[in-house]
Write the structure tokens for this entry.
Amino acid sequence: MTEAHSIVPSDELPAVHTPPGREVAVELVGVHKWYGEFHVLKDINLKVKRGERIVICGPSGSGKSTMIRCINRLEEHQQGSIVVDGVELTNDLKRIDEIRREVGMCFQHFNLFPHLTILENCTLAPIWVRKMPKKDAEELAMHFLKKVKIPEQAGKFPGQLSGGQQQRVAIARALCMKPKIMLFDEPTSALDPEMVKEVLETMVSLAEEGMTMLCVTHEMGFARQVANRVIFMDAGQIIESNEPNAFFSNPQHERTKLFLSQILH
Amino acid sequence: MTEAHSIVPSDELPAVHTPPGREVAVELVGVHKWYGEFHVLKDINLKVKRGERIVICGPSGSGKSTMIRCINRLEEHQQGSIVVDGVELTNDLKRIDEIRREVGMCFQHFNLFPHLTILENCTLAPIWVRKMPKKDAEELAMHFLKKVKIPEQAGKFPGQLSGGQQQRVAIARALCMKPKIMLFDEPTSALDPEMVKEVLETMVSLAEEGMTMLCVTHEMGFARQVANRVIFMDAGQIIESNEPNAFFSNPQHERTKLFLSQILH
Amino acid sequence: MSLTFDDGTFIRAQMQTPLPPPRRNVGVIGWVRQNLFSSISNGVLTILGILLVAWILPPLLRFLLIDAVWTGDNREACLGAQVGACWPFIKAKFAQLIYGFYPSGERWRVDLVFFLGVALLVPLLVLSWPHKRLNSFLFFVAYPILAFILLTGGNIGASNFLLGHFGLMQMVAGDASVAGLRLGFWLDFLITTALCVAVAYLIGRLATGSGRGAATMTAYVFAGLGAITLLWDVDFGLERVETRQWGGLLVTLVIAVTGIVASMPLGIALALGRRSKMPIVRLLSVIFIEFWRGVPLITVLFFATYMLPLFLPVGVNPDGLLRALVGVALFTAAYIAEVVRGGLQAIPKGQYEGAMAMGLTWSQMMRLIILPQALTLVIPGIVNSFISLFKDTTLVLIVSIFDFLGQLRAAFTDPNWATPVTLYTGFAFAGIVYFIFCFGMSRYSLFVERRLNTSHRH
Amino acid sequence: AKLDQVKAKGFIQCGVSQGLPGFSNPDDKGNWTGLDVDFCRAVAAAVFGDTTKVKFTPLSAKDRFTALQSGDIDVLSRNTTWTISRDTSLGLNFTGVTYYDGQGFMIRKDKKVNSALELSGASVCTQTGTTTEQNVADFFRANNMQYEVIAFATADETIKAYDSGRCDVYTTDRSGLAAERLKLTNPDDHIVLPEIISKEPLGPVVSHGDDQWFDIVKWALFAQVNAEELGITSKNVDEMLKSTNPEIKRLVGTEGKFGEGLGLGNDWAFQIVKLVGNYGEMYDRNVGPDTPLKLARGTNALWTKGGLQYAPPIR
Amino acid sequence: MNDPKVRSIVLQVVALVLVIVLGWMFIDNARENLAAQKIATGFGFMENTAGFGISQTLVSYSETSTYGRAFLVGILNTLLVAVIGIFFATIIGFLVGIGRLSKNFVIRLICSCYVELLRNLPPLFQILFWYLAVLSAMPNPRQSISIFGEAFISNRGIVVPRPLFGDGTGLVLWTFGFAVLATVLLGAWGRQRREETGRPFPMLWIGLGLIVGLPLIAMIVTGFPITFEKPELKGFNFVGGMRVIPEFVALTVGLATYTAAFIAENVRAGITSVSHGQTEAANSLGLRSGYTMRLVVIPQAMRVIIPPLTSQYLNLTKNSSLAVAVGYPDLVAVFAGTTLNQTGQAIEIIAITMGVYLVISIITSVIMNTYNKRVALVER
Ligand SMILES: Nc1ncnc2c1ncn2[C@@H]1O[C@H](COP(=O)(O)OP(=O)(O)OP(=O)(O)O)[C@@H](O)[C@H]1O
Ligand SMILES: Nc1ncnc2c1ncn2[C@@H]1O[C@H](COP(=O)(O)OP(=O)(O)OP(=O)(O)O)[C@@H](O)[C@H]1O
Ligand SMILES: [Mg+2]
Ligand SMILES: [Mg+2]
């Protein structure tokens, strides 16, 4: 919050400060969630340390997206507690806004604003939420667009970009808010093989800068290369959680074994 | 055409008749196509024999979809000739209808009819185009729905199915017309890894029955397993065309090498 | 339950079973909290809203019920200082408001038409009722013919068809008639049919290579036309009731229903025309739509009354109600066309391609794939147009047709019921009647919209 | 000829107004009643001896003449002012005057105005008609007065606006003033000013070209006026058959063959009086003091009583 | 012959021939009929003296003016109602439409009732209701509500002083114009500064000060050249001043609220058509709900809203012909009503009236379509 007005001086992002006592970025304790009668999330316990990079995988419909969306309160949970960046999520609108400012999200379907240009998509939040001067916001946006290798598309509208390019804009847009935590929901679904590679490279470079990341993906290459921990979900529960090498080479749970056997065909 | 009214008696499809002199299913000679000023297809020459199974790959925007769509005249070409099933494609509406009856198409985005149930989606064309009695059409549709392993979904609407199931319906729908030639446009894009497997298995079983197939895909496993020939396109041209083993193990063109290196990461 | 290790490794040993959701937000207080007072501004809005209702409702109830007069025979009953609605007035005029000046001995015919209409419409509206095909045929084809015969008395005395206008038929057949049917007319009809079929064949042949389809189509149309005319021409012994004597709700419903039924196909055709790739067809459609959409219905009806006769051959003077019907139908068709066009635009190109790839012809594609989806999408817009149409029927008073409101206005002129509250009572009653019909349409459309929405049903 | 057509049809098609209290308005049973309507019945009585053999066509001011010209109606009996232009240029004939009307003003008593000449600066509510607005304009201009006119489509809204105080005066034909007055919250708080600013002789109209029909309609009215003058009413008309008064005998048809000249039976006038009544009865029944309208005879009284109703003799 | 091009040409030729034949038949008949009925045609009557009064005239008009002048007065009155009605209908419509999606149950309920009630009752009743309700709420001129003795509200309408321009008015008007210009420029600069520095600029107050203050100073300097004619109660009515008549108020309110119910439905449909993902994306960026609505949802909803909105604007304009029910002198009342009654020239008058409405409608359509093109999404 305090450094919100400073502009990025060089190509390097400032290192993430870790205030004392706040080394835990996200903590979910006994979280349950229902959609009507349907029990989607069951007793989720998860502690993400600052700077940690977590990959979440699991079959379709297992509740991965739901969990991620609970973290920035796009969905409400009914039981248990979620603490993000030291603030517990309640119905208090002020706090939710505060947290959303610090948590970036990159949607499965991008959700770019089709009526705004790429640049405007990226500057919207910095200008209206961070009250950043327009010029600074644009500079910042161009910085991140360069980072995802599409600065030349800044003036176009989302509808004019290919899927891969849109995906990268979504990432840049989230980064422009300089969030402390990033949530990615299947950032490479529906992409060409060549594009998959580019997007993953962007994320790897972010990871190298030490950002806290939660990423739903099935790109196991990415998990191996970047993650500190892999979480496997099924039927609304965390089934297994392990560091990548152990997870892939030596899955413990039966369900995990079955899933991995099908992916690595 | 003559056997249009017969129903499938057993689980087996009738063997494809090959009238003498018609051993070429599709032939493109010097085909060029422009979108306005943009030259999408440049001098395409391709001869597909009856029963051949061809995989087309290439980077995004290279004109793969466009070429496939020219074959059943969803797009008009401006130069060169396309002969399908012995009939040349011109502006003659009668002939186009005739050809479309013999050529099945499975779209990248399925294009199922959302207001009809799965069964109705499948029986529509047999009833209205082939003038088949409704009961026979339904029997036939169930036959193919069984084949793609979703007979239990027959009464649902497309909006109620998951992506993979929709994809399989699209295949079944095309097959219900008992086409001599099938065109697939990225039949596994936007699918979960578990689903990809199921769809490909369906196609393999079709291939085993000897249907002529042109398939745009990046699933190299499928290409290796099923294709007679792999075609690589870039910038609107066919760059390389070879049988799968040679194609993968020993690509000739520089562009092909680059592309393959990125896919097989 | 599960194994957790220090390094964050975690393996679930036992799967959790689904639990029922907690009942936290139930109960009256919970509901009030969540829906009414979730924040201060919300609370203020709630209180303001309740005040608004408290301000409007009581005077309304007082006028309609508490202070209202319920019995009486003439104006004397409803005079006085603090009198509310004068209901005896409505009671006295009720029959007129329903039937207009329809002869009282013949009103059973109107009742029968009403009854048949409801009996056929209800199963049509209940989506799950079977036999939709038969039902539609009965309602859209058989019912109008029957209603026409019942309401007018049939026996139209058909005398002139196309050739008759040029005085050609008289020479051949004279005034001879068999069983009350004039030979001249039917001879004329047959010759015209033959001519039209021939022309259709020629055009079809030129356009598509085979004229047979066009010719049989035309023949069917004429056969249908002939059958209907024949039915209408038969004398069933019913007394003739001119449309001039119709009135009240009967006229309102006749205009509204005919307008709705006739404007739909016309509107769809216009919408397709406007999206056509053929420039002349498109231009004609655009001109037609923009013209009718741009002028007030009042002037259209004026036009139909005072100017239309000028544009028709001397002596041709269509029935006043018919003129109003045509005016209303064309007017509504233009609106429907625009609404439908919106729906057509919303259908993704993929649907067209999917249909084409299956080998469907253009008309099959439209009928089976595109229109069902487009129309479902724009149900709210269509119903909006219908609601407008229903209310706009009041304008036919200009053409000296006494619809429901016109009949009410005529009732106001009765000096026996002239009181200060007569006008308010009449309008309150008319308001309730219009509201019931329009609200019914609006709710039904909502229901259909939800029912036909196949996209998100899990 | 028209008469033959009418006889062949079996009824008279009569154009009336779409609703004018006391002149033509539907009653509770949906039957048309009123002075104009009764006159049509009188014609039917003369032609058929049966007042039910008449059908009514409600017409607006705009299509009344067209309806007559095109032969849709046989006679127009709809408060139509007799003017030279209408009589001469539209191919019509006015057959007489059933009601002498004139445009007047109504005003609240508490405005303390006794003459229309004191209305300078007033707001005037009126109904759009063919001449009403022009008459007001002419009157105020001729007397050099300012005014503001608010013209409504129908009488109902006009009187409501006047009642709620939007206007100082309400102007329309005086018969209309009497009818609309009934709808006021406190009718006694209002007075009608003495000035009549226009002449509105209202009468039945037939189309040019059939003198016999013209005569029938004309004499139907004259017969009624004469009957009143002679004291023949629907109640005593049967006794009058035995009367020895030659004037009465000629009217009821016991002397002379005047019906033949019209192409009707000689009891034509008898039937009119018997079935519809004389002019006075017709007047009293529809607009007279015993009706809600409470219109005094005034100018519509017989010439013998200081009014204008005068009929040529039957002889 | 199976070529679609040939097919379409044949079809079009057939359509064209049909239309031409029909049109020719109409015109031919009309010629014959007109000749037969000796109906006076021509527009000469427009020059004749109208001879009737009109209660609201935006341009000078008196009984001695011509029918042509009355026609102009009618058009202007119609336009006035249409423009003001459209303005308010849009505002109310958007508020109610958004209100129908509110989280507050009472607001949602009231907005639903508003829509269902007003949409399903004939507009004629509503206009009459407003008219009689407005009238009954107002006192008569003698008891009129006085605002500082300058303006008066009564059942004759709202009367305000009318400015009379004396010498030196020019300067005052110029300064006023200058102030407006300055405010606009300043506003632009303020917005730019806001974008550059993020600091807001108190535009409202400074602008108000400029627009009110500068002309005031100029007035003082030139010695108050603009005097006001105060309305006075003389006899029956107020004399002098400018007046807003109750007929106008009722008609505008009635039409605006009625049309607003339809607009509200269109707005609701538009908003629900914007995918939920857009709101979520905006929220996840930290935008508050007000901003989300303004910056993300409404701009996208506009695409869906505009075509039916155009229809509603046209409807409002056309429904203004109900004016005659409450005695408001619009085009239909003055021209297709009184003038038609007096001259009897139905054909010309109806044709002109239709033409005027057609022109207004087409202009509205063109403006809205231009705007629609501007908000259309750019896609591949
Ligand atoms: N709004 C909703 N109402 C009811 N059920 C829902 C809703 N949204 C999601 N669900 C259900 O919740 C479950 C979890 O959904 P979620 O989107 O979290 O799955 P996921 O793990 O992200 O799957 P995928 O890999 O397909 O994205 C699914 O079974 C889904 O059907
Ligand atoms: N309607 C059109 N107008 C203009 N250009 C078009 C149009 N449709 C496609 N293109 C262009 O034609 C080229 C080929 O498109 P095509 O869809 O055939 O690519 P593709 O090889 O199927 O790519 P992908 O793998 O992404 O589906 C692309 O560059 C595309 O931008
Ligand atoms: Mg998901
Ligand atoms: Mg493609």
In short: The radius of gyration of chain E is 27 Å. Chain E touches chain B at residues 2-5, 7 (CB under 8 Å). Chain E is about 70% helix and 5% strand. The longest strand of chain E covers residues 151-154.
